[in-house]
Write a structure and sequence with these properties.
By secondary structure, the protein is α+β, with helices and mostly antiparallel strands. Among the domains are: 41 residues; 93 residues, Beta Barrel (Thrombin, subunit H), CATH 2.40.10. It is 35% helix and 23% strand. It is built from four helices and six strands. It has a six-stranded antiparallel beta barrel. β1 and β2 form a beta hairpin.
Length: 192
């Protein structure tokens, strides 16, 4: 059975022999690579990679962060909201020899009777005073008290509104230099 191999068969046998030896030598390396691949696969299954947020999730997070750092409204805004039901808009009509004159101003309801504190220059020499209350009702009014030295007048409406919201006035004697003061009214004749 000793046959002679042809040169092609002999060459193929040598190649197989080299391949088998190479595989035996590379076997530990291949085993290490397979174990590493298996370890990485198991790790990824146990600890999946973090999925980046979608654009919608990102936008929602930005909104939440922005809302949490938005400061509360300033104290002046809260003061304005508290006094708003007490504010009135005042229109005056003055007559003189040459023409009719109209004026505007603002005031604040100061008691349960609906009396209104305003600046005297707003209503001085008026032949008609018309009050617009915050609830939308209107009435004419008359001056019941005035203090020209301090430019203060108190008006009494002829028909107070159904709901009266008097402002809570502070103690001017308790004011000190540097205390905050807020001026409220109807700038440019606009009802706020």
């Amino acid at each position: 059975m000793n046959e002679k191999l042809s040169p092609i068969q002999n060459d193929t046998a040598k190649r197989r022999s080299i391949l088998i030896r190479t595989l035996r030598i590379a076997q530990p390396f291949i085993a290490v690579v397979l174990c590493a691949f298996l370890a990485v696969t198991v790790y990824n299954l146990l600890f999946p990679a973090h999925v980046p947020p979608s654009q919608n999730e990102f936008d929602e997070n930005v909104k939440q962060v922005m809302a949490s750092v938005t400061p509360p409204p300033p104290f002046s805004t809260r003061v304005h909201q508290a006094i708003l039901p007490s504010l009135v808009f005042i229109q005056t009509h003055r007559e003189n020899d040459q023409d009719k004159k109209f004026g505007i101003g603002s005031g604040v309801v100061i008691n349960e009777s609906g009396d209104i504190l305003t600046a005297l220059h707003v209503v001085a020499d008026a032949v008609e005073i018309k009050i617009h209350f915050s609830d939308g009702s209107q009435s004419t009014a008359q001056i019941i008290s005035a203090e020209p030295k301090n430019d203060i007048a108190v008006l009494r409406p002829h028909q107070p509104p159904g709901w009266i919201f008097p402002a809570i006035l502070g103690n001017p004697g308790a004011m000190r230099v540097g205390d905050e003061a807020y001026v409220v009214g109807n700038p440019l004749g606009l009802m706020a």
